[in-house]
Amino acid sequence: MITWINATTHPPLGQLMCASLAALEAGKHFLLPMRGQAMRQYTMPSDQDPPKTTHFGFREVAETEKERLVGQVFSNVASKYDIMNDAMSAGVHRLWKDRFIRQLAPPPGTKLLDVAGGTGDIAMRFLNYCRNAHHDHTAHVHLVDINPEMVNVGRQRFHNTVYDLKSQVDLSVGNAEDLADIPSDSKDAYTIAFGIRNCTHVDRVVREAYRVLKPGGRFMCLEFSRVENPLIAPLYDLYSFEVIPAIGQVIASDRESYQYLVESIRRFPSQDQFADIIRGAGFSVVGKGYENLTFGIAAIHSGFKL
Ligand SMILES: C[S@@+](CC[C@H](N)C(=O)[O-])C[C@H]1O[C@@H](n2cnc3c(N)ncnc32)[C@H](O)[C@@H]1O
Description:
This protein is of the alpha/beta class. The protein has helices spanning 13-25, 63-77, 81-89, 92-104, 121-134, 148-159, 202-212, 232-252, 255-267, 271-280; strands at 2-6, 29-33, 38-43, 53-56, 59-62, 111-115, 140-145, 169-173, 187-193, 213-224, 290-293, 298-304. Helix content is 43%, strand content 23%.
């Protein structure tokens, strides 16, 4: 906070500066002489300052709380996550994910980092694509997710497949905002699907993606987005707010987590705003930087580290 005050209404400068320094030590207001008659009063952050807030669905929560609340949502839904995705989207999420991987079109030997990878839908599709398109057994995916329960469901899933958990797949628990265990310039591709809107600082996530990619590497994000079509938008809203939480209640006995899901979609930046964040992190994008899927219910964003 900055306020202008008149020097003539205040004690002499020496006393004033001492008082200001004392106040500064106590983490409160302090005064600085400015040109002419006026002084500026500054406020330093202190332990008593209210914490920074962010959104958790439509609620405003402390930034430090969001991660825990999101963690709770995905712990609650982990065991029903895959079946709920099919129920909510009538299987359309599968078509979006297939398209996402076809757009990535990974060449043989690609080293992919799949962040917020959850139960492994993208990781699995990536390996299937490499095997089917190129008979490639050298591609590798490292799935990172902040939620151990989601990672465990993913691990079980890979156990029942042809993919060798050691040579082609790694799974670990980690935060998209700080991928400290992943070296810089080490990955050919980075994917994040339906994960970034759950993160507290979207810009930090994209900057981390930029850091871990090799020069020439590709960032791709699949995320729910904005429906602008005036005929479709109200129907989509009705479906989102009335039907999805009810499906959550019936299938997962959890209305609240799915209420959060639809609210979090509305709080995520628009397609163009998110494309700006991607450019801002240093990525080069082609054209407007995204492709809408199903009227913009979801969108694929893409950027290159050149
Ligand atoms: C909707 S699921 C998407 C899972 C998977 N990518 C898919 O498309 O099916 C979102 C995932 O993001 C994870 N997540 C949320 N915040 C995260 C963060 N800060 N870092 C890493 N993962 C996060 C959650 O644990 C959850 O598994």
